[in-house]
Structure formats: structure tokens, C-alpha cells
Specification:
Chain A is an alpha/beta fold and 98 residues long. Chain A has 4 helices and 5 strands, in the order E-E-H-E-E-H-E-H-H. The chains are: A alpha/beta (98), B alpha+beta (721).
């Protein structure tokens, strides 16, 4: 998994490639932990995300919870497979997917 | 490394030893070879120089000797020959004079007085006088004889005078008639003991016949005197009257005893003088045997025909002129010879020196030189040898010292290393106390190494303590986790069949936990006689937090479900309960269904869990997809969707966690929903237990021993109505 991070004032953009599972999720969690302070707009580009496990969903949920308090979080370019996961897990109800 | 006594072959000490010994040996070898070559060269040089010196010396010596011989021997010879010649020529002159006078007497017999000459007598002993002697058969009283004697008497004074004034030893005239007139100082020897006069057969003497035959002045060989027996040469000359008739022969004795003595005495120091006449007769020689021995007068021998061409040539030349020095070889002996003529008498005087004598000084010189050279060479060689031996001794000493030094040095260097090696071996054996012993205080790299070892062992000790501590702690945690895993597993209902009294349905469930304690769980329980609640859930994350969260979730779900209500009500309640103080942001996906056993109708609520799989009695297992609600404990006040379903008699329901489709093999491929369906859809599926076990076996087969990352949990329900 590779994570590309772009911070511009209150805007933080991340693009995630590969698999976001039990083993890779802590990396994303660690990256977000320090960066979310003062962020009002968080964007995820998951065009090249191949798979997301419950651990990865948890990280997204954490981020969503934080952003609910301080701004907005949007997920872009979810593929069909990923979208299915979001639907099945009910995350499409929680997350803002565009 | 092999060991020889205390010496490790191939060890550092042997390397140092080899280095030192090798270097010394190399130097020694080079030095010895150089020394050997140099001394050999020097010896050869000295030898060559000696030879050259000897050669030049002997050359010079030989040349000098030849010059000396040439100058001395030849000159002496020439002088001798000349002296002899003068001697003989003065005698010849005297004889010629007397002969001339005698001839005149005979030519004028009438004008001359007749003078009486006496026969010798003893009274005249020792006085010079003329004496008349007759031959046998001569009659003094015969007139003609008496008249001739009277005529000869005129010669008496002259003969006496010639004898006295010349070198002649006797002077005489003998007539054809047998009368001889002597002039000498030895009249007494011509008188016999009885007083009679000894007859003198002049006409049969060699000097007489020789002169008559030669008709000229004649020199005899050296012959003994008739009266004295002394050796001498007689010079004679025939006298003819005016008619050419032989009247008399004049003779003169030349005793050559002194000459012979001189010749005899010449035979010394390898040199000698000899004389040869024109017939090749050796007439004077100190030799008594061999080719140079004197030949008798009547002997028909010619030395020139003895087979020595060099000698013959020399003699021929010497009879006419001085020859200069010549080399003549006679029977393996080489002589240096030179000759000179005495033309008057027709002799050649020859001096000879044998080569040994000539080269004697040279050989003596060479011998002496060689002795001296040999002696100095011996001294030189002795010294060289001594030097060599002492050098070798010194070198041997150097070798011993070097070897000993190398040994001591290597020992000194290696000893602390050996001590250290022992200590390190002990460390390998588990004894971690490295003591800085006295041997390590070498103030070099070894001490540094020892210090490093000391630091290393101390650090290792503390690390080991730490690791031991940590390991113990880890062990403890691990043990506790195992207990937690066990507790978690024990919390799941594991007695099958769970409701043996109920024939309406069959139920089986299993959980195969991953290595690390996980968060999967299942549950089933009767909420009342007619309602069966089934739970399949998966807590996000792993480890103890997930396990604790699972326990709470499971308890809350069961408690709330037992209180009655629909699955959505139950999950909403549980969700709000779990969201309280959920700092670690854990959540749990839950499939919760409540089945009315009497009718087979059920209501399910899926909070983010996997799709359930359903098989109608005559159909196949199929994934039932519908929109799920978010997982429990994501956010407060969530509303959960509900999904109604109905089971017919013989229908089967299969629920599971993501551990089944996401089981991964070594190629990182996932078992997948397809894989799961393939395993499920078999002809005789058997009981619920069989279904679950077949799925578990299918997963195991697919994974081929790859490590199981997630809990594998499944539950199967068959409805019989």
C-alpha cells in the first residue's frame, strides 16, 4: 500500500493505493493521527484502492468521527468492488461518498 | 589447526615464526651464496694471477737463459776454437819453415857443410838438444846415410831454436832413409835401460804416412807419443827436392793434454765441450760412452752419420763458421749447442748444454715461486676457510637468536590471545564473566581487544538479563493471551447438538481462532420456545482489546435479545451501549437473525456483516444480497435495517465471518465467495456439522499450510419444520 498525502492549510488530500487491511491500516491510522488537527476538509482518493478490510473501515470511521466534529470528509472515486464493501458493511450510510 | 606440543601449526605464532625464520633463512642463503661465489672467484683470480706470473716469469727466465747461453757459450766456443786454431797455426808455421829449410838443404847438398849430430845419451838429460836416431835396419856407417846425416846436421841448430822459441813439444825431421833428427828437452827417454838408443820407426808413424799421402801439411788425430805416451797432435809436412822426390817429413809434437784436461773438466753443470774433425771423428770429449765418446784414430766412424740430423747439420756448419745457438735433440735429451771452426787443423769445437741445465734456473725459479705461491695460497685458503667457518658460526648464532626471538615474540603475542580464546570459549559455554587478566595488559591491540570483550560481555550480560526479563514478561502475556483465547473460545456455545430435543432444526457452528486472539464470535439461543436467535459477528481489530470488546458485544446482544424485540431494536440498543466510551474506536459487524421455528419465518438485521448464504431445498447455496446497515458501535443512534426471510422445510442457512472467503494461500490468492460456494454445493451435503467441516477442510486445502491470519468462523442451520 502506498499513501500520498497533500496538505494545503485546512485541506488534506490523501490518495491510497493497494490493499488497506489489518497489516497496512495502522500506517494510515498513524499518518492521520498527527495530521488531522486544524483540518476542515479531508478528502480521500481511493481510485487505486484494491481492497479494504474491517480494519481499514475502522480507520475511515475514526477519521469520519473526527471530521464530524471539525469539518467535512469526502471519499472520491470508489471502485465497484469497494463500493460493494461500503454498501454491504453499511458504511455507505455513514461516509460521504462522491 | 593442528598442534605440535604447544605450538599451533598454522596459528599466528607459527606465522610469526615462519616470517622471522624465513626472512633470516633467505638473508642467510643469499649471503652464503654470495660469500661462496666471491671467495671462489677470488681463489680463481689468485690462481690465474699465479699462473700468469709463473708463465711470464719462466718466459723471461728462459729468454734470459737463452741470451746468456747465446752470449757466453757461443762466444766462449768461438774463442776456444780461435785459440786452438792459433795454437795449431803457429805450429804449422814452424813446421813449414823447417820443411822449407830442409828442402833447401836437399837441393844444395854440395854447398853445405857436414855437421855431426850425436845420438841421445843420458848425460844430456833435461837439456834441449838435437839428437839423431836411426830406424831399424839403417846402417850409420853407410856412406850415403852418413852423408845425409851430415847434411841434416845443418838443421840441428835451427830445430833446437824452433823448439825453444815455439809452443812445440818436439820438433823433428825424418828422412825417407830412416833417420830422424830430434830437437827437444827429453833426450833421456830415447835411451833404453841398457844404454842403447831406442829405434824410432818414423816412416810407419801416422804423421809421416799422413803427410806423405796428403803431400801437404798434415795434422794427426790425437795420438799417444811414441816415447812419453802423452797425447798430442802431430803437425807434419813432406819435404821434396827440386826433382819432386820425397826426401823427408818434418814433424812437430803438440801435446794437448792441457787441452784434453780442459775439455774433460768442461763436463760439469750439464755442459761440456767436444771437438770433431773434418772426418766426423770425435777427437776430444769428456764423454767416455755414448755418441759423444772419443773415437780412435783408426776407427771408421762419423758422428754425423749417427742418425741425428740436427747434430750432423750443426757439425757441418761448425766446421766452416760459428753456428750460434742451436737446439739439438739426442735421444729425448735436448741440448743447446753452438760450434765454431778451427780451420787450420780442420776441427770444430762444439759446446753443449742440456736443456735441463738451461731450464734448471727457470724450473728452480718456477718451483720456488710455486712453493711460495702455494704456501701463500694455503695461508689464504686457510684464512678464507677460517673466515667462512667463523661467518657460518656467527650466522648460525644469528639463526638461533632469530629463531629463539621469533619463538619468544610469537609466544608473547599469542599467549594473551590464547588466554582470550579460552575465555571466549567459556563465554560460548555460557559463562559470561570475562575478567581482564594480567596477560591482557599489553598496551597494544590485544589490550584494546580485551577491553572490547569486557565491554561486550558486560553489555551482553545486561542484554541477556533484559531479554530474560522481557521474554518472561512476554511469556506471561502470551500465557495470559492464551488463557484469554481459551476464555473467548469457552464463551462460545460448543455443545452440539445444542438443542437435542428440538427436531425442527439442526445447528452447528465452529470457530478456528487465528494465532492472535481475535474478535470473531457466534451465538445462538432460544429467546422463547418458538424463537431461535442466531448471531454471527466480527469485531474490527485484533488482540486483547478486540477480545474484550467481543465479550461485551456478545453479552449485550444476548441480554438485549432475551428481553425481546426485533433485531434492529436489539442492535440499536447494543450500538448505543457500545458507543459509550468507545475510545479505541472499535466496532463490530453483526448478523443477527431471529427465526420463528413454527413457521420458518425470520427477521435478520445485518450490521455491516458478510452476506448470508441460503439454500432452498431443491436449489443450491446462493448469496443473499441486500443493503446492510453500518457496523455496530460506529456511531450513536444508528437505525438498523431489517430483512425478512422465510425458510422452507429442508432449507439451509450458512453464515460466516470474512475469515472464510478471505483465507489466503501462499500465492496471496483468496479463497473467495466462489470457493466457498463450490465447497458448499455438493450432492450429499450431510448434517450441518458435515457442511461446516467440509468448508473448513476446503479452506485448509486451499491455504496449503499458509499461516491463518484471521479467525475462521461459520454457522450452519438446517430447517426441518
Amino acid at each position: 500500500m502506498t499513501i500520498e498525502m497533500n496538505k494545503n492549510g485546512g485541506e488534506l488530500k490523501l490518495s491510497i493505493e493497494g490493499r488497506l487491511d489489518t497489516t497496512t491500516s495502522p500506517e494510515l491510522e498513524g499518518k492521520l493521527k498527527g495530521e488531522l488537527d486544524g483540518v476542515t476538509a479531508l478528502e480521500f482518493d481511493i481510485k487505486d484502492l484494491e481492497y479494504i478490510s474491517s480494519a481499514g473501515l475502522r480507520v475511515l470511521l475514526q477519521a469520519q468521527k473526527t471530521m464530524n466534529k471539525q469539518g467535512k470528509m469526502v471519499i472520491h472515486n470508489a471502485s465497484e468492488d469497494i463500493m460493494e464493501i461500503f454498501d454491504v458493511t453499511g458504511f455507505s450510510d455513514i461516509l460521504t461518498i462522491e | 589447526m593442528r598442534k605440535f606440543k604447544n605450538f599451533v601449526i598454522g596459528g599466528i605464532s607459527s606465522k610469526i615464526f615462519n616470517l622471522v625464520a624465513g626472512t633470516v633463512l633467505l638473508i642467510l642463503t643469499v649471503y652464503t651464496v654470495a660469500l661462496g661465489i666471491q671467495s671462489k672467484k677470488l681463489s680463481e683470480l689468485v690462481k690465474d694471477a699465479n699462473e700468469a706470473q709463473i708463465e711470464s716469469m719462466t718466459g723471461i727466465s728462459d729468454a734470459t737463459m737463452e741470451t746468456i747461453i747465446d752470449e757466453n757459450l757461443c762466444k766462449t766456443t768461438e774463442l776456444d776454437a780461435e785459440i786452438a786454431d792459433r795454437y795449431f797455426s803457429s805450429a804449422k808455421a814452424a813446421v813449414l819453415m823447417v820443411a822449407d829449410y830442409t828442402a833447401k838443404l836437399y837441393d844444395s847438398p854440395d854447398i853445405n857443410h857436414r855437421i855431426v849430430v850425436k845420438t841421445p845419451d843420458l848425460c844430456q838429460k833435461g837439456t834441449t838438444c838435437a839428437q839423431l836416431i836411426y830406424d831399424d835396419g839403417v846402417d850409420p856407417t853407410d856412406y850415403d846415410i852418413a852423408d845425409e846425416v851430415g847434411l841434416l846436421g845443418n838443421l840441428a841448430d835451427m830445430l833446437t831454436s824452433v823448439y825453444e822459441r815455439s809452443i812445440l813439444d818436439a820438433c823433428y825431421v825424418s828422412t825417407e832413409t830412416g833417420v830422424t833428427l830430434f830437437a827437444d828437452a827429453r833426450p833421456e827417454i830415447k835411451v833404453a835401460d841398457d844404454g842403447s838408443v831406442i829405434k824410432y820407426p818414423a816412416r810407419s808413424r801416422p804423421w809421416y804416412s799422413g803427410a806423405v799421402e796428403k803431400k801437404d801439411v798434415y795434422f794427426t788425430d790425437i795420438i799417444p807419443d811414441k816415447y812419453t805416451g802423452e797425447y798430442g797432435v802431430v803437425v807434419s809436412c813432406p819435404v821434396y827436392d827440386h826433382n819432386g822426390e820425397l826426401k823427408a817429413v818434418v814433424g812437430a809434437d803438440l801435446f794437448v793434454d792441457s787441452m784434453i784436461q780442459a775439455v774433460n773438466e768442461s763436463d760439469k753443470n750439464g755442459g761440456f765441450i767436444f771437438a770433431v774433425n773434418e772426418n766426423g771423428h770425435v777427437i776430444m770429449s769428456p764423454k767416455t760412452v755414448g755418441i759423444f765418446a772419443v773415437h780412435a784414430q783408426d776407427e771408421d766412424v762419423d758422428i754425423r752419420k749417427a742418425g741425428y740430423s740436427d747434430l750432423a747439420e750443426l757439425i757441418d756448419e761448425a766446421l766452416t763458421k760459428p753456428t750460434g745457438i742451436k737446439k739439438v735433440e739426442i735421444d729425448d735429451t735436448v741440448y743447446y749447442m753452438c760450434g765454431a771452426p778451427s780451420p787450420t787443423v780442420g776441427w770444430a769445437v762444439i759446446s753443449a748444454v742440456d736443456n735441463d741445465t738451461v731450464s734448471l734456473p727457470t724450473s728452480m725459479l718456477e718451483k720456488n715461486y710455486r712453493e711460495i705461491a702455494d704456501e701463500s695460497a694455503t695461508v689464504y685458503n686457510d684464512n678464507i676457510e677460517k673466515t667462512r667457518i667463523s661467518m657460518l658460526l656467527i650466522l648460525a648464532l644469528v639463526v638461533i637468536i632469530a629463531v629463539a626471538n621469533g619463538h619468544i615474540l610469537s609466544k608473547k603475542i599469542v599467549r594473551p590471545l590464547n588466554v582470550m580464546a579460552d575465555s571466549v570459549s567459556k563465554i560460548q559455554g555460557g559463562e559470561l564473566d570475562f575478567v581482564k587478566e594480567k596477560a591482557y595488559y599489553t598496551a597494544d591491540e590485544i589490550e584494546v581487544l580485551a577491553d572490547a570483550f569486557l565491554g561486550l560481555t558486560n553489555r551482553t550480560k545486561s542484554y541477556i538479563n533484559e531479554i530474560t526479563h522481557i521474554t518472561a514478561e512476554k511469556e506471561r502475556i502470551s500465557a495470559e493471551l492464551n488463557i484469554a483465547t481459551q476464555i473467548q473460545a469457552d464463551m462460545l456455545p460448543r455443545i452440539f447438538p445444542p438443542f437435542p430435543e428440538r427436531s425442527e432444526f439442526d445447528l452447528y457452528a465452529s470457530m478456528k481462532p487465528a494465532k492472535e486472539v481475535g474478535g470473531d464470535f457466534y451465538d445462538f439461543f432460544m429467546t422463547d420456545d418458538n424463537h431461535l436467535a442466531m448471531v454471527m459477528a466480527d469485531v474490527s481489530g485484533k488482540g486483547v482489546p478486540a477480545a474484550l470488546f467481543m465479550v461485551i458485544a456478545k453479552t449485550l446482544i444476548k441480554n438485549r435479545a432475551m428481553m425481546g424485540g426485533t433485531p434492529s431494536e436489539i442492535l440499536a440498543h447494543v450500538n448505543n451501549e457500545l458507543c459509550k466510551g468507545n475510545e479505541s474506536e472499535l466496532f463490530v459487524t453483526v448478523w443477527l437473525a431471529i427465526l420463528e421455528i413454527s413457521t420458518g419465518k425470520g427477521i435478520a438485521s445485518n450490521a455491516g456483516h458478510e452476506h448470508p448464504i441460503l439454500k432452498h431445498v431443491d436449489g443450491e447455496y446462493e448469496v443473499i444480497k441486500y443493503k446492510h446497515s453500518p457496523a455496530v458501535a460506529t456511531m450513536e443512534d444508528m437505525i438498523y435495517r431489517e430483512h425478512e426471510f422465510e425458510l422452507k422445510k429442508g432449507d439451509s442457512l450458512f453464515v460466516y465471518t470474512d475469515g472464510v472467503p478471505e483465507a489466503t494461500n501462499l500465492d496471496n490468492a483468496m479463497f473467495g465467495t466462489e470457493g466457498m460456494l463450490n465447497v458448499l454445493n455438493v450432492k450429499d451435503e450431510g448434517s450441518c456439522r458435515d457442511v461446516c467441516e467440509r468448508v473448513a477442510a476446503g479452506v485448509e486445502e486451499f491455504c496449503e499450510g499458509a499461516e491463518q491470519f484471521d479467525d475462521i468462523t461459520m454457522m450452519c442451520l438446517k430447517y426441518y419444520g
